[in-house]
Amino acid sequence: YKYKKRRMSKSRLSIASNGSIPIVIPGQCETEADAVEESKLSEEEKALMREEFEAELLEAGLQIERDKERSNGIGFIRLHIPWPILSREAELQKIKVAVKKVRRLIVICASSSLILCINSLLARGVYVSAFPLHDVSRTKLLHEEWANYGVMHKYQPVDLIRKYFGEQIGLYFAWLGVYTQLLIPPSVLGFIVFLYGIFTVDTNVPSQETCNDNLNITMCPLCDGVCDYWRLSSVCSLARTSYLFDNGATVLFAIFMSLWAACFLEHWKRRQMCLKHTWDLTSLEDEEEELRPEYEETLQEKKDKLKAKSKKKVSYRSLFSDTTFIFVTFSAVFGVAVYRICMLSVWSMNPDPEAKASVRMTVTTTGIILNMLVVLVLEEVYGAIAVWLTELELPKTKEEFEERLIFKSFFLKSMNAFAPIFYVAFFKGRFAGRPGDYVYVFGDYRMEECAPPGCLIELCIQLSMIMLGKQLIQNNVFEVLIPYVFFIHKLKKIAAEDEENEIEERRPKQQFDKDFTLEPFEGVTPEYMEMIIQYGFVSLFVASFPLAPAFALLNNVIEIRLDAAKFVTEIRRPDAVRCKDIGIWYNILCGISKFSVITNAFVISFTSEFVPRMVYQYMYSVNGTMNGYTEHSLSYFNVSNFPPGTAPNTTLISGVSMCRYKDYRDPPWAPDAYTFSKQYWSVLAAKLAFVIFFQV
């Protein structure tokens, strides 16, 4: 009940009643103008309101059991609802329960298979009452059949989860089970695509040409002044690794994943309809939502309802805040890019030839790790910011508040997680310029470029690091380690209080005492959010990392049991919430699935080398093979055209008159030197055509 001063007005029933027994809840019969904050009430007023509240509960037929009063610590008051009251309320709320006494069926189960026996009886709708000798509760049943790593290979007892936790949590675990089950086909196919790349990498002509020292291809420097010319064969391992994920089978896998996303959503719709029928949710009507206390308090402070002008002001403020945090996210991505650019120049000053040879891989690896850490930190920050922005908008009802909070949290967290991947996939190397005419940041640092094998391998590493980092670090540190440390600290604090009360009262710990030490339930939104972001990793950029579904499957198999153990043993039992579906999360899934078709089409067209290879093989190759593709994809640059101060200060490769760079431009001896060649426009047209074909 709420702490509010009462005035004479018509009371409103908050518990369903047939009219014979009015159940009045004090504090809900006031007008909005009478609401006051709890801190403004004296202790005497609070005690009086509590006595009135408990008296009306007794009048409604409930029974109250009190603990012996303590000088300090936590005290409990237990409410018991007799069977007639429960039957009446269940009938009014249309909940299916037994309405008359039935003869009990006594079934004897072997002790070795007691859990399985009781689970089977419950599944058949048989009422099971445990003997005192075998105190088997649903909690123990859930622990044995669900929150146990030894039953990973079994289906979840969804019906039992729903009976204990309610429909909202039951639907979440049902959805998670369907999602995990349907990850098996793409996991197997993605592994086959990876194996295909391993078995055919030795026959891949572009990789062989890149690794061929006899071609003697000299590449242009990676930075101005301190960077030297380098041999194309030095990136041999990078080219071979890139082919493992960038081959012909990857395109077929991306098409399959687009169809898989549609099948997954359709399969879940059917599964959800079956659960609605089984759980008797088809006739569930949306209840009228009450106003949030925060909304009422704001109305009291302003002495008036919100006007349209103030709502528009709040909307503008929220839009401005969203724009600001988008800028912050992309600034973080740009900051990491600047870090890579600066470190490339600094580490290239090392006189050690071996260190210079590995400078690109070192910069890329450290940049990816830094990106992952930034993503993890900003995700925690954005969670609190989403709550703050939603409270600024002041939604009227709890349902409206939850939907807005979910949307803002998803928007900020997905933007934070996917921004580094989008940068590598669609922006890195696109605006770097060419030798002699590079684009600079802060006046002195060149924009970074992709390696000759393309940016796909870096996109693959970036995606895998962020995806695995979020799953391993978030799941193990934020969800397990940190809550465990706080739980141990809380237990020590409660133990100290119990020692003080030991003199006053000596009695064994009751179950409600133990349950009170558990962490409060914070809703299923964090659980959904984690899985939806993972679904984005699996579907949006799967063309660059075919093993993403396999890693997601492995994570989810463990995640289900980890969440089960958390719900059963680590958090307080939440209030059961009846709902017909997963709500706004389904709309978010549909949006991600549709957007994934577009992103995978652009990844294959503009990030991978698939389209340029096909254009060369069928338009420019002399014999219809890939022989000569590497030479065809590199342009020439006359080193005498370097602007002053940009050519290498010292070089270990003497006699260089021409260097090569990755682009389709006319050579320096052509009339229009360094302009885009005909091959460039042919490849661009083929890329755009492939995007349209992929959408169809």
TrEMBL record:
Keywords: Cell membrane, Coiled coil, Glycoprotein, Membrane, Transmembrane, Transmembrane helix. It is a multi-pass membrane protein. Signal peptide: none annotated. It comes from Scophthalmus maximus (Turbot). GO terms for molecular function: intracellularly calcium-gated chloride channel activity; protein dimerization activity. Belongs to the anoctamin family. One of its GO terms (cellular component) is plasma membrane. Residues 285-312 form a coiled coil. Residues 38-101, 118-158 form the Anoctamin dimerisation domain. The lineage of its organism: Eukaryota, Metazoa, Chordata, Craniata, Vertebrata. The keyword Cell membrane applies. It is found in: Cell membrane; Membrane. Residues 161-695 form the Anoctamin transmembrane domain. This is Anoctamin.
